[in-house]
Write a structure and sequence with these properties.
The complex is a heterodimer of chains A (about 210) and B (about 230). Chain A has about 210 residues and is an alpha/beta fold. Chain A contains 10 helices and 4 strands; from the N terminus they run H-H-H-H-E-E-H-H-H-H-E-E-H-H. A 5-stranded antiparallel β-sheet of chain B has the order 4-3-2-1-5. The chains are: A alpha/beta (about 210), B alpha+beta (about 230). Strand 3 of chain A pairs parallel with strand 4 of chain B.
């Protein structure tokens, strides 16, 4: 099997089957005392069950309800998230960008798949795909059409390529029909995709 | 110099397949495991996030283009562990350790009871930097990625599709660790980081909507005043 030690490439020496590759690496690391498998379990549990888009949705709902909070968020969201204890791994520097009748925002990371994990959880497979990474910057309106959103000519699309540790979160426009609802109800209208820009807030299923 | 495969903004690609509601967060158990192992080992401090990205980008082109997302993580991690002297070729081939790692490393591993706090703390890249060269509203030209790397091949976060293009500074994010240096363990070399806005028509031609824009975060050394 060809490999190139001079460039430090040894990954081909692991088993061919990916599941076995992971098992082998984990075995080596645990045997060497370089990995606590319970820590791995704990990390997985955090991202499976605790950290997810409901966190970002609560922020959006609060911004819809409280003009002063919204103003703070748009002025210095990094400070707001730090104070709320929401500036953790891969979300240390989040900038909130507001959708308006004039501008629809769309977030991507063309170079890898940077994403605001503390607010949205694990990124979906399509966000990390070559298709999205390649086309979001150059064909955003086509991408949005593929997600079922038609952006009128009167609204411009602004795509944010997350090339640094700044993470962008879209503050979607509040749907007319949702005005007057309290924040916990509003949070249910805020979909994960609406905070990335590939969706719009929607009436939760099952609610009249 | 050939454009590296990870730098794919603007390339042709197929239609998106949006996920369905209630799709599992992880398709495979080994995906979850890879995520957990990558984050846990990163906490030892033997490398940094920029080195992690460079390790994935440095996978042979064929691998980068055929590997699934978590396979890239696994490939990058294996090579990084080897390059940093934490695991040996022999161990990788046998699938077992040759012996205990240095106590210095063992003392640094992330323990289960510290996970929640570690994830919540994150790792800010904000640092003091020199007085900013550019101001909000200023027009700047972007360099070419090859002119920003500190070794060959080297890491940069300047995507090829803005090379030699003209944009406007719309935000100043403050000083941030420079990946071009940090990825190669050359120090943090913090620089002012700016959000630079480009006209879609300038980037993609007349087929783009005239009011559409693309914003890219650029370090000061990626830009020149015009």
């Amino acid at each position: 099997m060809p490999h190139d030690h001079d460039d430090g490439h040894v990954h081909h020496l692991l088993p061919a089957e990916p599941a076995l590759r992971v098992k082998a690496l984990e075995t080596i690391l645990v045997e060497k005392g370089l990995l606590d498998p319970l820590a791995v379990d704990a990390i997985i549990a955090e991202y499976e069950h605790k950290i997810g888009p409901h966190i970002g949705a609560e922020i959006v709902a609060r911004a819809w309800c409280e003009p002063a909070f919204k103003a703070e968020l748009l002025k210095d969201s990094e400070a707001v998230f730090r104070e709320a204890g929401l500036a953790g791994r891969q979300g240390e520097h989040v900038v909130v960008v507001e959708n308006t009748p004039d501008v629809h925002n769309l977030i991507v990371c063309t170079l890898c798949s940077c994403y605001p994990w503390p607010l949205l959880g694990v990124p979906p497979a399509w966000y990390k795909s070559d298709a999205y990474r390649s086309r979001a910057v150059s064909k955003p309106r086509q991408i949005l059409a593929e997600f079922g959103i038609d952006i009128p000519v009167s609204q411009s699309v602004k795509v944010w390529d997350s090339t640094a540790e700044i993470r962008y979160l879209v503050l979607p426009m509040q749907p007319e029909e949702s005005h007057g609802l309290p924040a916990p109800e509003l949070a249910k209208w805020v979909t994960r995709n609406s905070m990335i820009g590939t969706g719009l807030p929607a009436r939760p299923v099952g609610i009249e | 110099m050939m454009k590296p495969p990870h730098d794919m903004g603007g390339d042709q690609a197929p239609q998106i397949v949006p996920d369905k509601p209630d799709e599992p967060k992880f398709e495979e158990a080994w995906h979850r495991r890879t995520l957990g192992i990558t984050i846990a080992t990163g906490a030892m401090g033997a490398w940094n996030i920029d080195s992690s990205r460079f390790a994935r980008e440095s996978l042979p082109r064929d691998d980068y283009q055929s590997f699934s997302y978590y396979e890239k993580w696994l490939g990058g991690l294996t090579n990084l562990l080897f390059q940093r002297g934490l695991i040996s070729e022999n161990e990788i081939m046998s699938g077992h350790s040759d012996g205990q790692a240095d106590k210095a490393w063992q003392d640094k591993i992330l323990r289960a009871d510290r996970v929640k706090a570690a994830l919540a703390a994150g790792a800010s890249t904000n640092r003091a930097a020199d007085e900013p060269l550019f101001v909000i509203g200023q027009t700047v030209r972007v360099k070419h990625p090859a002119d920003t790397t500190q070794q060959q091949p080297g890491h940069t976060r300047l995507p090829h599709y803005i090379a030699d293009k003209t944009g406007v500074i719309i935000m100043h994010h403050g000083g941030h660790v420079l990946p071009n240096a940090n990825a190669h363990f050359l120090g943090e070399q913090p620089e002012n980081l700016y959000a630079v806005e480009f006209s879609a028509v300038d980037l993609w031609g007349q087929g783009a909507a005239p009011t559409d824009r693309v914003v890219v975060d650029c370090w000061e050394s990626y830009l020149v005043a015009i």
